[in-house]
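[scheduler] slot 2 assigned
[scheduler] job type: sequence-to-structure, two independent chains
[scheduler] chain ordering preserved from manifest
[runner] begin chain α
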Amino acid sequence: MPAGNAMNDLHAAAKRCLDATDPIDKLRLTHATWQALQAGELLVDPASPPPESIAAPGRPDKPRLVNARQVPQRGLGSEQGRAALVHAVTHIEFNAINLAWDAVYRFRGKPDAYYRDWASCANDEARHFALLSGRLTELGHAYGDFDAHDGLWAMAEKTAHHDTARMALVPRVLEARGLDVTPGMIARLRHLGDNRTVAILEVILSEEVAHVAAGTRWYRHCCERDGIEPVETFFTLLRDYMGVNLRGPFNRPARLEAGFVEEELDRLAALALEN
């Protein structure tokens, strides 16, 4: 069966979402795929061709991708600075759409609940991207107007062969960072009177807890499948893939709600102090 020909194959549908380069098309396909999955029109097809080697996902020509250190830091006191912040979060959400669909497309033989979780996450991330894009328009800008970095997708490429590492490190480390830093952004923007951006970030923060929780749930599922201890394995993966270059502080209440345990949070805080 050629890739992408089976219109009821969830893996093929996820690949179409992943490959879409125009953000409008990616959002349209994402919402349609989630609705079709909910309606029972898409199924995990055991005959689906194996996943292709991971490559850059579909994305527009802009933003220009640069090293994280080259992304300019702008103060939030100016409208340009707030637009740059909104753009940075918009780029994270665009990457998150692709990450969720790659989790559906790449990792086979999972329970149906796994695929529903990540398709649901993709649908949420697409909605977040649309909200932030609208806010960028209000600020006189568009997605692509500022340089961005590609750290999230780089980790997807590193973990493409290893579902346990993917679940441990993308949702529970990189995406969970949003749980830590967003409350501070909200406080600063509220102080500046930018209530429009605050309202969007509050929606995203509340929904991202569930996305990190999905990462926790399926990370532990992988550990149980393989008979390995989850906490020690988490820190081994962190060291092996990231060199334990961590920054705190950590939003303990949100991370606990997302399935972290106290021992993990204590050890993360200790590691951040060492860096």
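[runner] end chain α
[runner] begin chain β
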Amino acid sequence: MTIGKAPVASLTLSGSAPDEDLLARVTSVVESTHRVDAATLDWLDRLLAEHRRAEDRIGARPLVDVMRQQLHTVVDMFSGARGPLVDRVVRLASEHAQFLAWMAQDQDDTATALTWYDRSHEWALEAGDANMAATTLNMKAHMAWSKGRATRCVRLAEAARWSASGTSLGVQGMAAQMAARGYALSGEADDARRLLEEAQRLINRASERPEDEPVWMYFYDETWFTLQRGMAAMHLRDWRTAVEHITVGLDALPDEYRRDKTWFRACLAHALAEMGESTQAASVAMASIPDAAAVGRPHSWNELHAMAAVLLRRGAKESQQTIAMLREYD
């Protein structure tokens, strides 16, 4: 399928446009059977990185169509690739498919997400990319966790850890913490804490050599890990520890992670409500509702509704105000 200039034209609006000579080569590759060159693939790598960052700020919905077009462009390059560039094209296609899967998952479109994760995993294996092959399994574990399927979460996270040799320390650490969250979800505190400690050791080692980590792991640092500790504590109903970790993580999380900050604020509000801190919980929740409606739905939205239900069960006077604001933005 030939996409023509559409993806190039739309993506240049982001400020990531190449110079004139490179733009001509990109357009030529898309429109004809000319051979792919490394400079074109370098540019597409940078564009994908920029779109990942954009999704942190604006959410998935505005980017899905653009990324589908961009993936078509990458796939169309396969027939023109030669030598080592063949693996680069397949790897790039795998990364695009994984990003599309994540965006579908973020919008709670499970069937679409699973399809894209399967395609990404297949392309990653074809390209010999162990890190992406493991990442797709780990993201499936995350999807199982989000649906409350603790055993499947643990099994997929363990598969991510051991099915592909040569993965980076960060990718291994990501899978270890995902397995920990699966155990926490099922109430198995000892296994959850053991794997969180193992993940902590892996992230510490990974931070010593960040250049060894794949580019899509840009967010995986001590701040993010602290927030995940808070999530595990929530599953174990250790509300005070959850509030402590999530508060520390949110204070350190840059504002550019607007979608993630919205999600973790919703979780913080929920944990505060469970602690009986109804006034503070409602304040955090209501401050989060506009962003949840704009970029965080449906997961943040569901968490805010769960928090409002806690306030309602407890008979907190703040429950009605919170529910009214949720209805206003619904």
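[runner] end chain β
[qc] chain β: Residues 241-330 form one domain.
[scheduler] slot 2 released
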